[in-house]
Every structure is written in structure tokens, then in C-alpha cells.
Specification:
single chain, four-stranded mixed beta sheet, 11 strands
Length: 238
Amino acid sequence: MKRQRQRQQHKLKRPSYILLAVGIIFGGIVLAGGGRLYRWLTAPRIDLQATPIPTATALPAPTATPRPAGWQEQRDARSGTVYLTPPAAEEQALRTAFAVLLQRTRVEAADEATLLAYDYDASIAQARDYVAVDFAWPLLDTPFVFVHTALGPENPIRCADTTHCSVTQAVLGIQAVLIFDAAMCQSSGSAPCLAQLGDDQIDARDNLVTATFVQDADGGWRLTGWEALALPTPPDTW
């Protein structure tokens, strides 16, 4: 009987141990989960609707590059176009370049001996120094040099910026041409020769010449464009 009671007690104790172990494990799970639940409940909350969205910071306006001293902004009275005029030193350099290039294609009237003494090769060499390397100026080695009676007044030099400018001047009363081509001068026997121009040999006796320049890295002004427009009558305002 005694052994039977002991065996029954052991049977009763074994489920108790099992329940106790299960209870401990479950309690640990509850405690761990409760800790996470507590942290979740007490954590700061972010309201996506109420949180302000950062706005882009306004950047300061870019600082304009200061214009070099002596450059002046002008406005054309007729068209309203805004342009720049250069300081005295740059103006003189531009007018010198223009005069050398103009002399390559047009020369002022003089006596025949003076005109025939025109130094053709020197004029090409001088003009080449004022022509941009990448610009093929078709008049650089032209065999024709037109003879005119006068130049119009100097116009203001107009610049798009401090490195791009144009010079314009009228060439008036074209009456003759110097020819530096022996084949064309056969009637006179040698080149150069001077030929007078009749009205049927010339489109217009008055031209408006515009030379466009760019300033190179060395500070010199170089030709990048050349235009000669025929003027039907002698201009009064050029």
C-alpha cells in the first residue's frame, strides 16, 4: 500500500512540474511582450499631417560680374537697342584695326603716282595681324583696291559685351580701282594699274562698311566679320 501511494504522489507531482515550467515560460513571454508594448505605447509619435515639410531655402541672386571701368551702356535712339561703348584705349585700338583693314581694300584719292606706289604686299601683311586665325577673310589678298574721295564721320563703336565689338563707317565717292593683276593690266603694260570706273562698272559709289571684332587672349582685336552695303545716295548722318 505504501509503495502504491508513493507512485500516485509521483504521478501527481510530475504534471505540477510541467505546469510550473509552462507558467514560467509564458510569464517570460508576457513580460517580454509587455516591455515591447510599453515601449511602443510610450514612444514619441509622429503625425505625418502635422509635421511641417521643410521648404527650400531661397538662394541669393547671382552677383553680376562688374563691368570694367570705362565701358558705358548706351541706347539707340531709333531702335531702342542697348549696346556698350568701349573706354578710350579700346576705342583707339579698334579704330586702328579698322583703318588698317579698310586700307587693304579702299584707299583715299590722290595723284596717280602716289596711288601706283601703294605697297600691296605690306598692306596684306599688316591686315593679316588683325584677322582672327579661324576667319578666312576673302578680301585679304584681293587684287583690287578701290579709290574713294572721302570717308563718312566716325560712328560710335557698338559692342555686345566687352570682347565683341563692331566698327562702322561710310566710304564715299568711289571713282577708280587699283588693279594688282598683270593679266588685267595688259593694256597699261604693267601692274599695278589704275582704272576709272564708269557707272555701269560699279554697283554704288557709296558704301557702308561694318567690321566685326573679337578681343583675343593677348588683348588684341581681331576681325571676325566684314560687310559692305551699297548706299544709294550720299548719307547725311553717317
